[in-house]
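pinned: reference chain
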Amino acid sequence: MGSSVSSRRIANRVSSSPPRHSTERQLVAAICYRIGARGLEFLLVQTRGGRWIFPKGGVEPGLTQAQSAALEAFEEAGVHGRIEEMPFTRYHFGKSGKSSRKVAGFASRSRAVTAHLCEVSHLEPPQESNRKPTWFSPEKAKRRLVADRAADFGDELAVVVDRAVARIRRLEAGGSSAGKKDALQEVRFEAFDNMRLQRQIGRAHV
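pinned: its structure tokens
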């Protein structure tokens, strides 16, 4: 098991960080996976429009990008597990749902999403309703991500899956070596409960 993220340390960082109000927070995604009897599988959730996507959201004040990605996975899909601190790739997301790199006119509205690998140990009912977290094989995950999207954006999401597969294989090839243990860190979600409580207290005093 990888080294644990201290809930007390995260909670202290959250409490000491002033609130930030920005509509342009850095976006992060958790690319959640497991390896079991059916091999490698990825966990996707549904958007309000019914499309399949990775758990995604903005970086929270007081949390690292990886911890914020883990929080999104926890809230949207009920994920418990280990997150990789360093991102392995990123993709571009715009209000139109299209990639700015190939579609003219959307560059100003497109934003980069930093993707972190998350190894799932177990799930609980997600806090957000109607997300329908579901496991898919890599190929099925790519088909779900491409469906009902602009071709270029769907292809970009499919590439994320391919890169995740390659990254997971490198981690697995390390076996019990230090590389795998250091890459993935267990996330303690008690700290996130503290963060939500502090938010509620803050709103009560506004």
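why pinned: Confidence is low (pLDDT under 50) at residues 1-22, 95-108, 176-181. The first strand starts at residue 27 and ends at 36.
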